[in-house]
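Data card: per-record layout.
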Amino acid sequence: QSHSHRLQHDMYFLTSTSRLNEQVVDKIILQLNRVYPQILTNEEAEKFRNPRASLHTRLSDLLKHLQKKGDRHCQEFYRALQINAEQLFNDLPSRKILKTSDPTEIDTDKEQYMLNDRGPVFFLACFSMAAGLALFWYCCNSDTKVVGRARRILGFSPIIIGRHVRNICMLYLEDISRD
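The structure for this 179-residue chain is written out next.
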């Protein structure tokens, strides 16, 4: 899509009330007047910076003027808008269409949600399972000193693991110590 068509699509959004303030519009006009090649002549820049006309009228006239001049002029306007009002530039309707138009591009917000959709309970369950298996493997060692240490650890375990799991582990340790 050409910049001229994008500007036509974004015109209502840009000219709606309180989107662009007087200072930002003046900065954009001055930048368009000073870039190489010069987009706005000195007379045109003075016309669009005229404080007697309303901001809405000046901005509408500026956008129409740029559309008549061609795609390069509209592209420079978008560049000036990005430099002077980046948040507004990112919120433009044409930018949102461009962001969502490529089906092969990964939407990072959606991808982030998809990776984290299981939540903290799933993480705690997996962590508890891994800790339980590690403790079980530690207790299964044939070294008798390990069984004694494991018994001391499991004695304080009602806080860490459930009572039923602790009872099963204690029974297992008693069976191992008999053998």
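Known properties of this structure: Confidence is low (pLDDT under 50) at residues 109-115. Residues 119-139 form the longest helix (21 residues).

See the next section for split statistics.
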